[in-house]
């Protein structure tokens, strides 16, 4: 057999002898053909040569091939390296030539500068390195230094494929001789980390896998160096990269020799993957974490046995849709939380958005695993949550809210109440209130009940609820909503405080969505009282809230929050206002005092007018407003109709007159009540006919018309005759609308004259009125002429002959006799009829 191998090897050597000699020729084509000839006569031969024959052939030939590795011609190098690779792949005894090959590989790959210019050939050489490690196994140990020297350079190679193959080689080397490799492993960490942000995701994946194997089988201290880089890869856009990190970290948590030292660094990385957007990664991380907990328990079974034996059953009050972590996982978090939490809170405030999102997500997972051991860390946790609630990124805020809710599940109110409420008292901001709302949402009703008084007192305190910031208002609403939903029938004893918060928000907000949300929360709160709607709460709590204003309502100014609350309370309470007139009217009288700031009087008149527009459903809901109507007119309206200089004073007069108009129009002011203040009202109203503001004059005309219609002949006749010159004067108004309104007012006033009319006593007044009206019968505007004609036709009944005489005296002066003739004809027709 041996003779046969020897004979066959001699034949092959004889056939390639000439080719071997040609490898030293200067001609590149000669060398190339020689290499091709060697390949054909050895590995390309049919049938294939026996491994023993090839070993015999290359025992003499191999050294010649090594020279070709440095050939100046790329194709020759490629053919030579290909032969070497086939040699180590198929020939069993090839490792005997390893001492000759390694220096060549180091020379071509392990230098400071790149010696081999061809990327493809560098890749082939690295693949040979991988092959050598796979083939030689433990025998590669003597060449570890050479391999490390090569890998340090090839990992930094510009060609991505070389990088990936170098990573593969590193993994195999680490796993093949771990007992020797650990002394050199740190040398590879730096070049590997320099590639962890490579633009190709496949390179990043290879690098991460290589780091995993290098540290697993090498010096575990390198974990410190790579953790921060792995943390950054958690934000990688490529799911495969994140999966690779999860796989490596998960394996470290399970198998790393020194894992106990690095749990505080590794646990956050693994738990971050539990909330990854990709289900596959989430499931993988969750499985690793579960297995880590199980293994930790088994390794510490004696220590944890008592804890398990006397452990309480799974809590009944537990977040829905969340699977409780095993005892090992919970214990791991308990022991390392003090190291993990501060860093995590710091990352929640990082300038990079993605970091803040991941950190907030991790916080929720951490709290689920920490459970009640989070109690001792509340002083550290809460400020971090408060700050993160104000994040611009909605996803961060959402996860922080969820984290706060989980705190409610696991930390008793006895603990968190003091800290959370203290923070709100110190600074009642958006974050503090959002955290409170979410903690309450997660709390257990029975445990929360004893603390409700403290919570509601802080929420209803003026420093807390009297805010104009929409964001803070929304969180105050959330707090009341959470209390209503969690505490349910426990709410009524604190209903007044919660009602005060809601009405205050309604008074101070400018946001329609807050208003609609407030009314919805009010309905929910009402149901906790056994009432059908939020409107019913006004019957219970409006009076006590009004009582809180008794000491200071006389001192209110335009900026007083109490005034805004009073305004909102009366508008929203509807029919309840009619039950509380004894409380409401004195407050309005005090704030409509003419000595008060004009702006606050404007607001109170505006409120009064709004209520009067629906008097039956507000002020007069109990048919008692008539008892207070005289007070409203005498003490609120009339004093504010007195003329004062200035635009604001003018606006006050207008609103006062408007309020009087609304009061008369509503019908709640009966004739017998008006008669008692008739003189004061007419005096002041007539004075506003000359007001500078057009709207005031127009509304005054309507008020007079309504008064004339209401009082009729009850008005003193002398007073009537004194009013008519003022109306005549208004027919010269710059506004045609007012002139038409004055004409209609005249018509109403004429009905107030007693019948029969005392012509002898009031002849001079009547003549003045006829002459004044006849002047405007010749007005350039046809609509004014028509209006005045209607007035004169009605006034003619007082003394027809006198009017005819006056018409005849001015008829020739008019532009057209049309209206005069029509008036005379009307008078004659009426006389004939009588």
Automatic annotation (TrEMBL):
InterPro entries: ARM-like, ARM-type_fold, DAAF5, HEAT_DAAF5, HEAT_Maestro, TPR_DAAF5
Start and end residues of each Maestro/Maestro-like HEAT-repeats domain: 652-830
A Gene Ontology cellular-component term: cytoplasm
Entry-linked Pfam families: HEAT_DAAF5, HEAT_MROH2B_C, TPR_DNAAF5
Gene Ontology annotations of biological process type: cilium movement; inner dynein arm assembly; outer dynein arm assembly
Domain Dynein axonemal assembly factor 5 TPR repeats residue range list: 23-307
Protein name, as recorded: Dynein assembly factor 5, axonemal-like
Organism the protein comes from: Lingula anatina
